[in-house]
Amino acid sequence: MKDWNFSKLFGILPISLILLFGLIYYLATLHIRLALVTEFALLSSLILIWFKLFDRLLTHP
């Protein structure tokens, strides 16, 4: 149960921060395409980090 709470927090917190930063970036630039490209780049890098981290957690107990 403790691991589930950690993984839930690890999944929700970064996504909410990225969405918040994307909204702030859009409001600062008022350029939706640039904000979407930036947010897509942040999300894809976060997904790659998740795969790397969970691969280490699952293969090295």
Characterise the protein shown here.
The chain has 61 residues and is mostly helical. It has one domain. 92% of the residues lie in helices and 0% in strands. The chain has helices spanning 2-29, 32-59. The chain is elongated, with a radius of gyration of 15 Å. The relative contact order is 0.11. The mean pLDDT is 73. The chain crosses the membrane at residues 9-28, 34-54. Keywords: Membrane, Transmembrane, Transmembrane helix.
Short description:
The protein has 61 residues and is mainly alpha-helical.
Topology of helices and strands:
Blueprint: H1 2-29, H2 32-59
Helix pairs in contact: 1-2
Keywords: Membrane, Transmembrane, Transmembrane helix
Transmembrane segments: 9-28, 34-54
Oligomer: single chain
Number-wise, the strands total 0
Major beta sheet, specifics? Answer: none
User: Low-confidence spans: pLDDT under 50, at least 5 residues?
Assistant: none
Quickly give the structural class: mainly alpha
Give short descriptive properties of this protein:
transmembrane; single chain; transmembrane helix; 61 residues; mainly alpha; membrane
